[in-house]
Amino acid sequence: MTPDAKRRRAIGQILLLAAGLVVLTFISAGSVHLVNRAREDARWVLHTVEVENQLSLAQLQLHRAESAQRGYLSTLLPDFHTDFEEAASALTPALQRLSQLVSDTPAEKRLVDEMLPLVNQRIEEFRNTIELALTQRVDDATRAVREGIGRDAMKHIDDLASQMRTEEDRLFVERTTNADRTQSLAASMTWVGSGFVVVLAGISILLVRRSARARDDAEALLRDNNLNLEATIDERTADLREANDEIQRFAYIVSHDLRSPLVNIMGFTSELEQLHADIFKRIATFARASASPAPVVAAETEPVLEAEDKQLAQDFSEALEFIKSSIAKMDRLISAILNLTREGRREFEPVRIDTRELIEGIVTTVAHQAAEAHAQIRVEPLPHIVSDRLALEQIFSNLIDNALKYLEPGVPGDISIRGRTKLGFAIFEVADNGRGIDPKDHRRIFDLFRRAGAQDKPGQGIGLAHVRALVRRLGGTMSVSSELHSGSTFTITLPIKWTGSNGKRAS
Amino acid sequence: MSQPVTIIMIEDDEGHARLIERNIRRSGVNNEIVPFSNGTAAVNYLFGSDGTGLDQKGRALLILLDLNLPDMSGIDILRWVKENRYLKTAPVVVLTTTDDSQEIKRCYELGCNVYMTKPVNYDRFANAIRQLGLFFSVIQVPAAAT
Questions:
Q1: Is-above-0.80 flag for pTM?
Q2: Which pLDDT value is given to residue A244?
Q3: Kindly report the CA angle at B123 between A313 and B113, in degrees rounded to 5?
Q4: How many separate domains does chain B show?
Q5: Under an 8 A CB cutoff, do A262 and B22 touch?
Q6: How far apart are CA B114 and CA B135, in angstroms?
Q7: Do B97 and A256 touch (CB under 8 A)?
C-alpha cells in the first residue's frame, strides 16, 4: 500500500468519527429542542383546558348568583343572600383570571371584554332585585324577574361563552396536533439519528477491519521481505566466502609459483659462489705461475690474490651477498604468505572459552619480556565466549606481544585487557601506554608487510594483518584508536556465540 | 641385478632439473639420467605405447618426481607407477616446493619412498641431493662391479 493511500485511510477514519460526533451532537440538540417544544405544546394544551375550566367556573358563579337571587326572592332566607354575595364576589376574580388567561388571544380577549360589562350588568340587576326585596318590595323584584329583565343579557353571555369555548376547542385541536407533530418529529429525528450512527458505526467497523487486513498483509509482506533478505544475505555471504576462498587459493598458488624461481635463483647463486671460488683459485694459480714457476702446494689453501684481483673478488662476493640476503628475505615473505594462507585453510572449531584464563596463559608466557620491559599486564574480568581457541590465542598473543614490543622508552609499561558484552557481541580492548601510532598509519598497520613508526624492532609486518584476518574469520571486527606517544587501544568485537557457519569453507 | 640404475627425472623447471643433475653429479653419481619436462612424455616413456609398462620389465629405475607439472599432477603419475606391476618396485623420490602436511601424507600413502621439499637454502639442498646420490651409488655398486 502506498503511504498516500494510508494517509487517506487515516483521514477517512478521522472524518468518519467526526461525522459520528456531529450527528450525535445534532441529535442531542434536536432532541432537547423538540422535548422543550413538546413541553411548551403540552403547556398550551393545558392552558386551553384551563381557559375552558375558568370559563365554566365563571359561568357557574354567574348561574349560582342567579339561583341564589331567585332563592332569596322566593324564600327571603338570608342564607341565599349570603350565597349570592359569595358568588358575586367570586365572579369578578374568576373573570379577571379568565381575562388574564386569554390575554394571548386577541379574539377571546375581545369576547371577555364584551362579556365583562354584561356580567356586571347582570350582577347589578340581581343586586337591585335583592335590594328591592330587602326593602320589602318583593313584588317589584319578582315582577322584574318575571318580566325577564336581563334574559337577553344572560343569553348573550352564554353565546359569548360558547363562542369562547368554540375558539378554545379550535385552539385545543390545533395545539394537540402541534404537540403530536412535535413528538413524532422528535421520535423520527431520534430514529434517523440512530440510523445514521448505526451506519457510521458500520462503516467504521468496515474500515477498521480493512485496515486490520491491510496490516496483516503488510506484516506478511514484511515477513516475506525478511526471508528474502536472509536469503540475499546468505547468497552474499556465500559469494564472499567464495571470493575469500579464491583469494586464499590465489595467494597459495602465487606463493608456490614464486618459490619455484626462487629455488633456481638460490641454487644458481650457490653455483656462482662455487664458480667464484674456482675462478679466483685459478686466477691466483695463473698469477703465481707467471710470477714464479713453483707449483701450487694445495688447492684447499686460501688462494693468495694480487691487490687488483682481490678487489674484483671482493666486489664479486659483495654482489653475491646482496643477492643472497634478498633471496633470504623474499623466502621469509613467501613463507609468511604461505603460513597465512595455511592458517586461512585451517578448519576452525567453536568451543566454549574462558577468555580470561586463556589470556592469563598468554601473559604467563610473556612474563619474562614484560619483566625486562618493566611492564605490568592487567587482565580484567572478561566474558566467556564460544570461538576457536587457537585463533583466539594467536589474536591476543599478537596484540600483547605488540604492546610489549612498542612501549614508550623510559616509561614503565602498563597494559590492560578489558572486556564487556553488547548485543550478542563481546568487545575486548587491549590498551597500552606505549609509543602509539600516528592516526595516518591506522589503516596501514593492518596491511600485509606494512609497518609504521620507527623501524627499530624486528618484524615482517605480518602480525596485525594476521590478527585481522583471524578476527574476520571469527565473524568479528577490529579497530585501533591511538595517538603518537599516548598509547594505543586495539578493540576487537567478536560474536559471543560463534557457530562456525560464517567461517567454514569446503577446502 | 647387472643393470645399472637409470634415473628418470620428471621436472618441468629447467633450472631445477639442471641443479638436481649438477648436484647429483657432484655427489659422484654417474648413473644415466633421463630427463622429462612434462608429465605426458614421462608417462609415455614409463608405460610404453601400450600403457602396460611391459617395456620396463626387469629394468632398475629410480624416479625423481615433481608434483607441480604443467600438464598433469605428479600425484597421478605416482599413483599409476605404484599401481603398475612392473614399475611398483621402482623407488620414487618426490621433489617439490609444497611442504603441505596433507600433501606429504598423501604421497606417502600412495607409496612414495622419499618426500623432499625443495629447499631454497643451497647447503641443505646440496646435502639432500648428495644423500640421494649416496643412495644411488649404493644401488650402482653391484651394477658397476659386473
A1: no
A2: 79
A3: 155
A4: 1
A5: no
A6: 11
A7: yes
Chain A closest-CA separation from residue B82 CA (Å): 26
Residue range(s) defining the domain that contains residue B95? 6-139
Per-residue pLDDT tens digits for A233-252? 899 989 988 887 888 788 87
The pLDDT of residue A486 is: 86
Helix A463-473 vs helix A307-345: crossing angle, to nearest 10: 10
Round to the nearest angstrom and report the end-to-end CA distance of chain A: 47
Cβ–Cβ under 8 Å, residues B119 and A264: no
Which of A249, A253, A265, A266 best tests the B interface by mutation, with the highest count of B CBs <10 A?
A266
Lowest mean pLDDT among A14-18, A186-190, B87-91, B135-139: B135-139
Contacts of B97 in chain A (CB under 8 A): 256, 259-260, 263
Residue B18 per-residue DSSP state: H
Interface of B with A (CB under 8 A): 13, 15-16, 19, 22, 68, 97-98, 100, 118-123, 125-126
Q: Please name the residue of chain A whose CA is at the shortest distance from the CA of residue B100.
A: A342
Q: What are the start-end ranges of the E strands in A186-318?
A: none
Q: Which of residues 251-270 of A touch B (CB under 8 A)?
A: 256, 259-264, 266-270
The model's pLDDT over B49-107, given as tens digits with 9 standing for 90+, comes to 888 888 887 787 888 898 888 888 899 999 999 998 888 888 888 888 777 788 889 99
User: What residues in B contact A264, CB-CB < 8 Å?
Assistant: 13, 15-16, 19
Asked if residue B145 belongs to a domain, the reply is no
Adjacent-strand bridge partners of B62: B7
Q: How many CB pairs under 8 A join A and B?
A: 48
Q: Name residue, grid cell 356586571.
A: A120
Residue A31's domain comprises: 3-214
What cell numbers appear for A106 in the block? 386577541
DSSP E strands in A24-134: the ranges are none
A41 and A188 in a common domain: yes
pLDDT in tens, A415-458: 999 999 988 899 999 999 988 898 888 888 888 778 887 788 87
State the ipTM, two decimals. 0.73
Same-domain check for residues A373 and A337 = no
A334 and A482 co-located in one domain: no
